[in-house]
Amino acid sequence: MRKTINLVVSKTSRNMSIISFYKDFPDELICKLHFKKHRDEKGVICKKCACTNHHYWKQDSWQYECKSCSFRTTLRSGTVMHKSKLSYSYCYTAMHLLIATKKSFQLKKFSVN
């Protein structure tokens, strides 16, 4: 199965300096909250029952729980950071550097397969 990755790149993120990037995303919690905000906007699909947008947020474990079947989905599950053990701030920094560069690159070079 081929996974597709949708990265939203605005003109401001391309021109953002590394200093302003670290001002906007200074620590792990800010990166996690930002990631959760965008994950909530896109919606969560339960892997077990395919239920959409009917999830509770479990703050203590940073997971979504399906209202229908109680299956839990992690914040990273089904995203570009799925199965990654790297911190959110590290991933955000890497994505910023990839977006900010003017050179082209292949996503295959950055996969962890």
- What is the average per-residue confidence, as pLDDT, rounded to a whole number? 82
The chain-level structural class is alpha+beta
The outline comes out as: elongated
For the sheet with most strands, the description reads: 3 strands, antiparallel
Our count of helices gives 4
What's the domain count? Answer: 1
Please bin the fraction of helical residues. 25-40%
List keywords for this structure.
113 residues, alpha+beta, 3-stranded antiparallel sheet, 35% helix, 10% strand, elongated, disordered N terminus
List the helices and strands and how they pair.
Elements: H1 11-15, H2 18-24, H3 28-42, E1 55-58, E2 63-66, E3 72-74, H4 88-100
Antiparallel strand pairs: 1-2, 2-3
What report would you give on this structure?
The protein has 113 residues and is α+β, with helices and mostly antiparallel strands. The protein has one domain. The protein is built from 4 helices and 3 strands; from the N terminus they run αααβββα. A hairpin with a 5-residue loop joins strand 2 and strand 3. The longest helix has 15 residues. It is elongated, with a radius of gyration of 15 Å.
